[in-house]
Backbone:
């Protein structure tokens, strides 16, 4: 189906408010959020979506209380340990994007382990963004380019948008076609700033733990009705830029 997004990127937001509404601690919301994530992975794989990205922890989420941060880290670790064989059996390739330096040695090891276990899988790519920020991503790409300039391998005047693109995380994968944010917030919160340039944006008031298969279906239907023009005109044949 041409109108199915190849790459779906989701900001899974609203766990805290979901718990608060039920007079439960925030961590119960995060736990329910993991369950919703498991369901969306299953439902996207079933629909043959090529790439699913989930924003699990932003560069800015370190600003949260240490107890919440360490609970989230614990959830990643237990989630990885519990889910990896199911993902592997379903031919899903698991990848992580983000800065790993602040993670514990144990978590870094686990991430490397599941990445290498699932590397050769040819099904859906599940991209988990942890300690990820769009500004961090652009910054690390710029750092690579400036190193090449310093080494005399590149002239700064020769730098093109494509060269930046090639040095970003997941440069081998298509940019998101559809971006979903739950919980009624209308912002990007430093997610894939560069890669979202021409993504279709979809916002829903549903809190992440309540995002079920029918919610996904609604978003996909909405996407199928969008007219993606990329700055051009559909009533005329596409012209080259120069
Ligand atoms: C999203 O839920 C999960 C993370 C950011 C890790 P929140 O924890 O942000 O929930 P709200 O936005 O406070 O409801
Ligand atoms: C964005 O949600 C990050 C994740 C869902 C991982 P936040 O809840 O951190 O975003 P803000 O603070 O409302 O912008
Ligand atoms: Mg939030």
Residues:
């Amino acid at each position: 189906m041409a109108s199915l997004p190849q790459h779906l990127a989701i900001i899974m937001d609203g766990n805290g408010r979901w718990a608060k509404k039920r007079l439960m601690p925030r961590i119960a919301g995060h736990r329910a959020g993991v369950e919703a994530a498991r369901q969306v992975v299953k439902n996207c794989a079933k629909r043959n979506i090529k790439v699913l990205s989930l924003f699990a922890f932003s560069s800015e989420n370190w600003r949260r209380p240490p107890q919440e941060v360490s609970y989230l880290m614990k959830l990643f670790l237990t989630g990885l340990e519990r889910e990896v064989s199911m993902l592997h059996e379903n031919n899903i390739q698991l990848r992580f994007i983000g800065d790993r330096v602040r993670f514990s040695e144990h978590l870094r090891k686990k991430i490397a382990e599941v990445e290498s276990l699932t590397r050769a899988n040819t099904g859906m790519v599940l991209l988990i963004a942890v300690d990820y920020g769009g500004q961090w991503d652009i910054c690390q790409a710029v750092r690579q380019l400036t190193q090449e300039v310093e080494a005399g391998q590149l002239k700064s005047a020769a730098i093109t948008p494509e060269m930046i693109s090639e040095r970003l995380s997941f440069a081998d994968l298509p940019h998101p076609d559809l971006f979903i944010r739950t919980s009624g917030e209308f912002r990007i919160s430093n997610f894939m700033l560069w890669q979202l340039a021409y993504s279709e944006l979809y916002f829903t008031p549903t809190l992440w733990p309540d995002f079920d298969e029918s919610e996904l279906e609604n978003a996909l239907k909405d996407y199928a009705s969008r007219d993606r023009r990329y700055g051009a005109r559909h009533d005329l044949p596409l012209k080259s830029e120069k």
